[in-house]
# Entry
Amino acid sequence: MRHLLATRELSYDHALAILDTAQEMATVSDRSIKKLPTLRGQTVVNLFFEDSTRTRTSFEAAAKRLSADVLNFAVKTSSVSKGESLKDTVQTLEAIGGDAIVMRHWASGAAQQLANFGWSSSAIINAGDGTHEHPTQALLDAFTLRNRLHGTQATGKDLNGVHVVIVGDILHSRVARSNVWLLHTLGAKVTLSGPPTLMPVGVNTWPVEVNYDLDGILAQHPDAVMMLRVQAERMAGAFFPSPAEYTRGWGLTNDRYQTIADTDTLIMHPGPMNRGLEISAAAADSAQNTALEQVANGVSVRMAVLYLLLAGQPGQ
Ligand code: CP
# Structure
């Protein structure tokens, strides 16, 4: 594996290898071993053109736990504001010593362009590109699901037969896309539910079932219901349905939450959560909500990705 750009192109074997390596990383951390020497002398660059709390800090924590140096590149105060191109920016950072570039960009396909146009000799990790993909988010979601369902015996196991419902603003969600492809590769059944206006054209070609009857789906007690963040910033002022309509129809309101409260259905959210819009405080604060567990698992998953890209065997 040379880069991590999209779960759509991740094979079953590579996906399981990342999850199993993440399990080893988590086990080492549980043993209070805070730092491994594995990536000493390597430099990881965090290059974020969009804001982030979880992804940027957990990549930094992951790199530091593997003893890599980390350069956090502040796009807003950089020469990007003077018109410097992505290609020149990345090549400048490589000249300073970057071995891996972790990039979040507002343009769908930006990570592919960097990796495939010969602009960079580094390992490229897509930390979210436009509405396209967010592969490490899907990997940490799968890791969380696998651990919840298989416990400490999770290594080597996939998600065959697991039912995951992804709810909300599918249209703008790179998290939804990455999860659809990865969950499908790992054998899970995926149902998408949300406002028809926020369902992508072409969704009928995805390996999913689309079902607009959210209450009916929740009554089936799926293994997990993944509530997506409503991405108002990508709607260019055209918020339709209105926030109140959205919550009534597609939010995990207190009433809707009662359908799955105290069952085995996990409530997942990639964060940041819009409390009161796509998820009620009661659901967000319930023991069934794995959002913080997902964040914690993100460090192990990102350690695994950095390890496999920078220290794994050639051709793996
Ligand atoms: N889930 C996620 O990508 O969160 P951040 O935007 O905070 O990185």
Q: What stands out?
A: Residues 52-55, 128, 137, 270-272 surround phosphoric acid mono(formamide)ester (CB under 6 Å). Residues 291-310 form the longest helix (20 residues). The beta strands are 43-48, 69-74, 100-105, 123-129, 163-167, 189-193, 209-210, 224-227, 266-268.
